[in-house]
Amino acid sequence: MKAFIIDRYKTRNAARLGDMPDPLLRDDDVLVQVQAAGVNPLDSKIRDGEFKLILPYHLPLILGNDVAGVVVQVGPRVQRVELGDEVYARPHHNRIGAFAELIAMNERDVALKPKNLTMEEAASIPLVGLTAWQALIEKANLGKGQKVLIHAGSGGVGTFTIQLAKYLGATVATTTSTANVELVKRLGADVVIDYKKDKFENILSGYDLVLNSLGTDTLEKSLGVLKAGGKLISISGPPDPDFAKIIGANWLVGQVMRLLSSRIRRKAKSHRVGYSFLFMRADGQQLGKITFLIESGVIRPVMDRVFPFTAIADALAYVETGRSKGKVVIKIA
């Protein structure tokens, strides 16, 4: 099969379109013919080796963490999915590979595609949808009347999280550039901070939750926005000791994560707030709940551009500019 492969880390020239063996199907797996794949900053970070400490992949590696397609084969133990089903998924982090003609995934990581979405629209959802769900609902238990600040509201995670937070009944603030102010307002943001004109830390206070996807400077400034007992959740790091336990990291890796996050954890404690790192996990059941919200019209996908399979390198470069509005998607078939 054709696939987008990296042969070594830390060099863009190492990523190429080439041939790889068809995936091997396990008893609980479904084999999906990929129709479309979402492009995420995570793909570039994996390519550049930023996650090799916590995700020690074997090279050559097929990139891609969002997929939509059609089931063409099922393992003997599969019960929830049938041949011909249109599905979408965020593959388990140990089995990524959406930038390919075929991908094998455990059925528990897969959900039926929303009927009201195209394959390209569906491929834009899993990673950002599950990130928003696990941050707002699992970790923060966000509810009606609470206040949340979502950084980078016009990005892939931001556009989805704003809509989910509004559905949960929260007051939503977000940061964005001047060009995207109207977009995030249409999605439901109550307070919009144009970071080119204003500093969010000088305007906002008394918030229950901040979801950070930006750098260390923004992360630390966000502490002052929270009220005592509030939560700061970051999807851009640094990883914390709890995350090391979740992934079963060895003692040395755990100590490295403890050291990397010591500064922000110490500052969070001094502000009487909690800090945690979120590396979202695959979960077909949660994705099924997201499907319901999409089919009900509560949440709609926000897409920027669709690239052809042969232009994956261009798609990654475009996402790396940080200027995409919503998600970027690859049309595979």
TrEMBL record:
**SUPFAM superfamilies attached here?**
GroES-like, NAD(P)-binding Rossmann-fold domains
Record-annotated Enoyl reductase (ER) domain positions: 10-330
Enumerate the GO terms in the molecular function aspect: oxidoreductase activity; zinc ion binding
Does the keyword Transcription belong to this entry? no
**Pfam families noted in UniProt:** ADH_N (PF08240), ADH_zinc_N_2 (PF13602)
Keyword terms, alphabetized: Oxidoreductase
Q: Which domain of life is it from?
A: Bacteria
- The protein in question is named NADP-dependent oxidoreductase
